[in-house]
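Researcher: I'm preparing a figure for a lab meeting and need a structural model of a single chain. I don't have an experimental structure, so a prediction will have to do for now. The sequence is pasted below. Please return the structure as tokens so I can convert it later.
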Amino acid sequence: MTEQATAPTRKGRGGIFGFLRDLIVILLVAFLISFLLKTFLVRSFYIPSGSMEHTLEINDRILVNQLVPKVIGVERGDIVVFRDPGGWLQLAPSVNTAAPSPLESVLQSIGLAADTSSDYVVKRVIGIGGDHVACCDADGRVTVNGVPLNEPYIVIPPGETRASKIDFDVTVPEGSVWVMGDNRYNSRDSRYNQDQPGKGFVAESEIVGRAFLLNWPLNRFTWLGNYPDTFTGVAKAQKTHAGS
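Model: Understood. Here is the structure written out token by token.
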């Protein structure tokens, strides 16, 4: 008499309990991926003030590339998010901020919601290490290494013709940047922080990353560029200045 092997029968995947288990696994993986992205690659920030109008408006959300400047160098014209170097936010105009809810705080911590904390500043890089930045020339323009900038992104109030209300003349230390807001007459940036310990410069080590995408609201969805044409000739002029 021979024994006949019987194949084990496959049981179901567990019905609703199996579905819930798979859903939990998917959510945990999604949270882990989001956390890793926030930690190493991309982070979202909320815009609370009008200092970067009209490039960035109040309540906009932006995505920031955290490989800048640790892996990819910061460039003139980049919009960067950085930690307050000390005292900047005390001088800033009133901002539209509110304490996040407990749920929002959790989502922020894992990268699923924009950071709404008041510890960060967003501005545009005008000068990098070694640059001589000054304002204003006879036509009211900012100059970098003697090259006047035509800045299509800035906002100047009616009746004003200068790219900056106040004069300044600085040389940016290596490893630092000089930043200004696009809304030039409503931005407490490097110009207004020269009496602070950092002399108005922002150390590259304080930069969280470069803003590359305005992702909310959807009707303003756009890539954020650094206007290379505005800074044409500036790098060459820097070498000339360094060699003189």
